[in-house]
Amino acid sequence: MIDKILWPLVSLGGMGLVFGAGLAFASKKFAIETDPKVEEIREVLPGANCGGCGYPGCDGFAAAAAAGEAPVSGCPVGGAAVAEKIAAILGVSSPTVEPKVARVRCQGDCNNAVNKYEYDGIQDCVAAAMLADGPKGCKYGCLGLGTCVRACPFDAIHINENGIAVVDRDKCTACGKCVVACPKKLIELIPRSSQVQVLCISQDKGKDVRANCKVGCIGCQICVKACQFDAIDFKNNLAKINYDKCVNCMVCAEKCPTKAIFADFANRKAASIDPDKCIGCTLCKKACKFDAIEGERKEKHVVLQDKCTGCGQCAVKCPTKAITMA
Amino acid sequence: MDYILKVFLILLSSILVNNFILARFLGICPFLGVSKRVTTAVGMGAAVTFVMALASVITYIVQYAILEPFGIEYMQTIAFILVIAALVQFVEMVIQKTSPTLYKALGVYLPLITTNCAVLGVAIINIQEKFDLILTLFNGIGGALGFTLAIVLFAGIRERLEFSSIPKPLRGFPIAFITAGLMSVAFLGFQGLIK
After folding, report:
1. Do A8 and B71 touch (CB under 8 A)?
2. Which residues of B164-195 are buried (b: 16+ CB within 10 A; e: fewer)?
3. Measured by CB atoms within 10 angstroms of the end CB, which terminus of chain A is less buried, N or C?
4. Which residues of chain A make contact with B72, given a CB cutoff of 8 A?
5. Interface test with A, best of B68, B72, B88 (most A CBs within 10 A)
6. Reported ipTM exceeds the 0.90 cut
7. B78 contact residues in A (CB cutoff 8 A)
C-alpha cells in the first residue's frame, strides 16, 4: 500500500527536482540584465497605476523615467516628494514643480441655473450631453451625473447636494482623469496655491448667460479693468485668469457683479510691517497698487488694513524683509 | 531501407495527413492567437518545434525509464505536463535573452505552449503507437513542422484578410474561424496519401 504512494511521489518529486535545478541553472545562464534603476523608481512611485503621467501605469513610467524619456516630475500623484526621490535615484537635480489641483469651473447648481428639459435617461454625463447638449439651460454647465466621480481613482470628486461636481482638495492628486472624462471640458488643473478662479466657461453673450444662470460670466470686463496685474485674459465673452500673473489679490472677485469669480476670502492675506525693521525707504509704498501703505520718507510705514488686498507685492520689494504676509 | 521509408512516412503523415491542427484539431489556441503576422507565426512555430521535439524524446525516456519500471503509467499525464512545463520555461528564457522583440510579439502565448495540447498530444500518441526513440523524435518534429506549416499558411491568409472587405459581423475572429475551417477541409485532401 505504502509503496503505491511512495513510488509516484519519489519519481515525480525527483523529476521535479531535476527540472527545477536545470531551470535554476538556465535562469543564471540566460539572466537578462535589466536596469536596476527601473526597479528603484518603481519602488518610490505611488503605485496607483492611474495613467496620469501618460504612460501605461507606474511600470511604464518607471521604465521611461529611467531611460530619460519621461521627466522626473512626471508623476502628478506623487508630486514634488516623488520627483525628488526619482531625481536622487537618477542623480539629476529635480526641478521644483508647482503642485496642482483639479477644479470644476461651474457654479450653476440647481439654485443658480435653469434646466431646459427634464432628463430621465442613462445617468451619465456623456449620454446626457448627447441629447441637445444636456438638460442644463447653459450648454457649458456641469450636468452633475457623475462621470468624473466614476473616473476618479482617489475618491476626490463628488456631486454636491445641489447637483454639481466639486473637487475635494485634500484628496485630489491632479492625475487628470476627471479632466479627460468630463464631456463638457469643465475641469481644469490649476496651481494649488491659486485662490482665485473664474468658475464659468460660458462663451455666450452676457444676455444669454443671464437667462440661464445667476452666477455665469457675462463678459462685462469689470474684472479686467479691476485687475492691477494684467492677469485676466478676456476672450470669447469670457474672463480667464492667467495663473502665472495672478497674485491672489482677489480684487476681481470683489468686483465681479455675478460672483462668477471665486476667491477664497477666508484665506485672504494682509501685509503687516515690523516697525523695528522698517527703515522708511518708501519702496513698499511705491510698489502698492492699492494705496494701502502710509508713511513718509525716513519714517515708519504702516499698512492700512481696510485697503490691503494681500497681493504681497510690498513684501517682495522690501529690502529689510520687514513685511510679513499673514 | 524499410526503416528509412517508415521514418519518411511518419514525417509525411504527421506533417500533412494527420496535421495536428487541421486534422486532429489540437493546439487551436496559439493557432488563432499568434497568427496575425507571418513573422510571429514563424517564431511561434520555431518555439513549438523545439518544445515538441525535445518533449517527445524526454517523455519517451520518462515513460520507459521511470513510469513503466515503477508501474505508475497512470501518472503519465502529470509527468508529461511536468516535462513540457519545464521545457517551455527554458524556451521562454532563451527567447527572452536572444530575441526580446519575438518575446514581446508572442506575449502570453509563449508560456501557454505549456498547455498547448498538441505538445501533450504528440507525446501521448508516441507512446500509444509504440514508436521507438528515433520514430518518436521524427513524429515530434513532423508534428511540429505540420503545426508551423499550418500556422504560417494561416497567418499569410489572415494578413491578406486585413485588407479585404469583409462584412462587419464577420470581421476579426469569425472570419478567422471560417478560414481555419476551410483550410481544414483542404487538408482533408491529403487523407488518401498514405494507405
Report:
1. no
2. eeeeeeeeeeebbeebbeebeeebeebeeeee
3. N
4. 7-8, 11
5. B72
6. no
7. 12
Contact residues, chain B, for A9 at CB < 8 Å? none
What Cα–Cα distance (Å) separates residue A60 from each residue in A55, A87, B13, B61, B101? 5, 17, 47, 44, 17
Q: What is the pLDDT along chain A (326 residues), one digit of tens a residue?
A: 787 888 888 888 998 999 999 999 988 888 777 778 888 888 888 887 777 787 878 888 888 888 888 888 888 887 778 888 888 888 877 666 678 889 999 988 888 888 888 888 889 999 999 888 888 888 899 999 989 999 988 889 999 988 889 999 888 888 888 998 999 999 998 988 888 899 999 998 888 888 888 898 998 999 998 888 888 988 888 888 998 888 888 889 888 998 889 888 888 888 888 888 888 888 888 888 888 888 888 888 888 888 888 888 888 888 888 888 87
B86, A30: Cβ pair inside 8 Å? no
**Residues in chain A, total:** 326
Side chain identity at residue B47, one-letter code: A
A293 close to A302: Cβ distance less than 8 angstroms: yes
Q: Cell digits for B157?
A: 491568409
Q: Is this prediction's pTM over 0.80?
A: no
Which amino acid makes up residue A111? N
Q: Residue A175's CB: how many other CB atoms inside 10 A?
A: 25
Q: Which of B62, B89, B90 sits opposite A15 (nearest CB)?
A: B62
Question: Is the distance from CB of A246 to CB of A192 less than 8 angstroms?
Answer: no
Beta bridge partners of A189: A102
Q: CB–CB of B96 and A27 under 8 A?
A: no
Which amino acid makes up residue A99?
Answer: P
**Across-strand partners of A198?**
A261
Which of A3, A11, A25, A34 is most worth mutating to test chain B (most B CB atoms within 10 A of its CB)? A11
Which of 1-40 (A) contact B at CB < 8 A? 7-8, 11-12, 15-16, 19-20, 22-23, 26-27, 30, 32
